[in-house]
Amino acid sequence: MVEVTPDHAVIVVEGYIVRPERIIANVRVTHARFAITTPQLLEEVLKRYPRLMQHACINDVGPTFAAVADHTSLPHLLEHMVIEDQVAHHAEVGIPDELAEQGVTSGKFLGATRWTDRDALTARVEVSYLDDRAALRAFRDAIRCLNCILLS
User: Fold this and answer.
1) Would you say 66 and 46 are in contact if contact means Cβ atoms under 8 Å apart?
2) What is the Cα gyration radius of the chain?
3) Do residues 100 and 116 make contact, with C-beta atoms less than 8 angstroms apart?
4) Under a CB-based contact definition with an 8 Å cutoff, are residues 104 and 51 in contact?
5) Cα–Cα separations (whole angstroms), residue 42 to 3, 55, 56, 77, 86
6) Model confidence pLDDT, tens digit, residues 8-39
7) b/e per residue, 116-150, with b = 16+ CB within 10 A?
8) Tens of pLDDT, residues 59-89
9) Coil, helix or strand for 106?
10) What share of the chain is helix, strand, coil (3-state, %, to 5)?
11) CB 9 within 8 A of CB 147
12) What is this structure's pTM?
């Protein structure tokens, strides 16, 4: 596995705001060539996050994340990875799989991503949560996963 340091990362969280029921992450992509996802990146991410394509997603193309997954912003991909990690955590602690799956496909776990400064490659990623520690862990793990894939 590639050793990722903040100085060499492709995507970094510059700060979190924890609010009741949602976390806001201020994210920066460090180079424009990584700003938009590619089919190759998505193929690698799906090995760890196989249900991403079924996530509910509000976009201009279709009702699920699959409609935009291979050509969306890297922060938007991060949003869905964080949601998926939370669903996996909830399943591990005893929430039935069908409930966790329903939360993803129906949009009960909410997220929103937007560029705050497209030229500076900064974005705001908002994700709802049931357990703030699980959500922060999900951000950490998803960031680590993306950086390892993109830097390998």
Assistant:
1) no
2) 14
3) no
4) yes
5) 21, 14, 17, 9, 19
6) 899 999 999 999 889 999 999 999 999 999 99
7) eeeeebebbbbbbbeeeebbbebbebbbebbbbbb
8) 899 999 999 999 999 999 999 999 999 888 7
9) coil
10) 50, 25, 30
11) yes
12) 0.88
